Amino acid sequence: MEITRERYTERDPHLGGQEAFTLRARFPWQRELQTRVMVEITTDEPVLRDPVVRQVIHGYGEAYDTAIQAYALEEVVAEKLRAILQHVEHVERRGWSRSRARDYYDLWRILGEHRSALDLSGFSELLSRKCEVRGVSFEVVDDAFQPVILEQVERTWDQWLGQLVPDLPGYQRVVGELRPMIAEILTDGS
After folding, report:
1. Domain edges within the chain
2. pTM for the full model?
3. Which of left, alpha, beta for 28 (phi over 0: left; psi -120 to 50: alpha)?
């Protein structure tokens, strides 16, 4: 397998010094580099919940029995919400930003399928601490559902998720079901 790496540079530098790379791979049966992965590395954002050990799940035929450390799902939820809130500020400041369709979809999947496994005690405090690192504020659930962001997410829904998610549910369904889920965790997690 051939793998290449190139630094990805945003138009404006990341405030926290985040680094980004595009990895491209060519499997032996491919003529050119076709598989692309974007890797973003942040060094200034604290991990506030203890990492958990998870088995690697894959869909290949061979046995692959290994485990890795991963973020706790509660921390993933807090970071995705923080990213959405930060996105609102980017759009207001710069007039553009990348779609957050994946964040809305990921939150919907995590809260819809794994809600009972989450420890959301103190979630509002966890979210506040995540927001504080990036100077982002959060007051009500509607802060994460700003029309300017939702318009962009709806417009880019299929483009950003269509090739990644088989049987992709519609934007209206996901956002409609997600809003009360977030309201609930903000209330329950206080």
Report:
1. 2-41, 72-188
2. 0.84
3. alpha
Q: What is the DSSP letter of 123?
A: H
Beta strands 2-7; 19-26: pairing state: antiparallel
Q: Give the chain's end-to-end CA distance (angstroms, integer).
A: 49
Quick one: tokens of 43? 């060094």
Query: pLDDT tens digits for 53-92?
Result: 999 988 777 888 899 999 999 999 999 999 999 887 766 6
Place of tokens 């509002």: 124
The count of other CB atoms within 10 Å of the CB of residue 46 is 8
Distance, in Å, from the CA atom of 123 to the CA atom of 128, rounded to the nearest integer, reads: 8
Helix axes 123-133, 171-188, angle to 10 degrees: 110
Question: What is the distance between the alpha carbons of residues 78 and 124, in angstroms, rounded to a whole number?
Answer: 9
